[in-house]
Amino acid sequence: MKRELTDIDKDRIIEMAWEDRTTFDAILLQFGLKEQDVIDLMRAEMKPSSFRMWRARVQGRKTKHEKLRDFREGRFKCSRQRQINNNKIAKR
């Protein structure tokens, strides 16, 4: 059973899908959507031309798939950046 996504959730998923280094696995972990579900959401929520541009951008991109990445860790993070846990910013 899939939960109903709020507009805020949809906005965040679209933002994460556009980010080069955010994997589909991260979206699955936070929102429970598989890659195909993300593609379907993007198709439904975006203009056709924007969807085609996004699809061409992520097609075969190594950074969008955890198993294809050349690196496992090492993402830059500013020391002043707050911890993000399950898409919620933790208080300091």
Automatic annotation (TrEMBL):
Provide an example Pfam family for this protein: DUF2805
Q: Which InterPro entries match?
A: CHP03643
Protein name (database record): TIGR03643 family protein
Question: Which organism was this protein described from?
Answer: Flavobacterium ammonificans
